[in-house]
Amino acid sequence: DADVTQTPRNRITKTGKRIMLECSQTKGHDRMYWYRQDPGLGLRLIYYSFDVKDINKGEISDGYSVSRQAQAKFSLSLESAIPNQTALYFCATSEGGLAGAWNEQFFGPGTRLTVL
Amino acid sequence: AQSVTQLGSHVSVSEGALVLLRCNYSSSVPPYLFWYVQYPNQGLQLLLKYTSAATLVKGINGFEAEFKKSETSFHLTKPSAHMSDAAEYFCAVSDSSYKLIFGSGTRLLVRP
Predict the structure, then answer these.
(1) Coil, strand or helix: which one is B28?
(2) CB of B45 within 8 Å of any CB in chain A?
(3) N or C: lower Cβ tally within 10 Å for chain B?
């Protein structure tokens, strides 16, 4: 079974709809991240969480919110989806602690979101 | 602030040829640098990472990268390309709060 799972894998929605993307991990990691990938722009950080009580905005948090329901679960919500939020979304996890700077991040398979 | 620049959004090589993917970084502190690979319809996976232990870093699938402080570079190489190497490659640097800053990616095409 995959260590980092994302649901749904594909989603088409309409402008103005609320949508939630879910991420679960079995790696026991404290840190979780949400990124979006757009062609030619690489991955950009939306939100990150270093433990259950810690939520931080990333580079492009406007229009998004998150919830860390448990160590293993980190959800991303689009309150009112708009077409320029069409992208590939990735969840990732990593270990915490003092070695955090060089800890590998483990990525889920991604969710392809289309907003019409 | 840390940043990375990947030169060339697309690189095309023949099977068996040398692969060279370029990455330059900007960092005010000793950097931690990473190369990730993304195969079609998959998430990213780590190829290799530099954490100051050695300037030449060997990774999976025959890839390696050399950290050159004087050139602020961390280029990725592989002596002989294989068709299965076709993918998108991302260079990343870890910032002071342990987040990854990614480059824009380089898509590697391998011609038969």
Answers:
(1) coil
(2) yes
(3) C
- Say whether residue B10 is in contact with chain A using an 8 A CB cutoff: no
Out of A50-59, A95-104, B27-36, pick the least confident: A95-104
pLDDT in tens, B37-83: 999 888 999 999 998 778 899 999 999 999 999 999 999 999 999 99
* CB B9 within 8 Å of CB B109: no
pLDDT for A64: 97
A47-63 pLDDT per residue, tens: 999 999 999 999 999 99
- Whether B90 sits inside 8 A of A42 (CB atoms) is yes
CA angle A38, B67, B42 (to 5 degrees): 30
Contacts of A90 in chain B (CB under 8 A): 43-44
CA–CA gap between residue A31 and residue A53 (Å, rounded) = 11
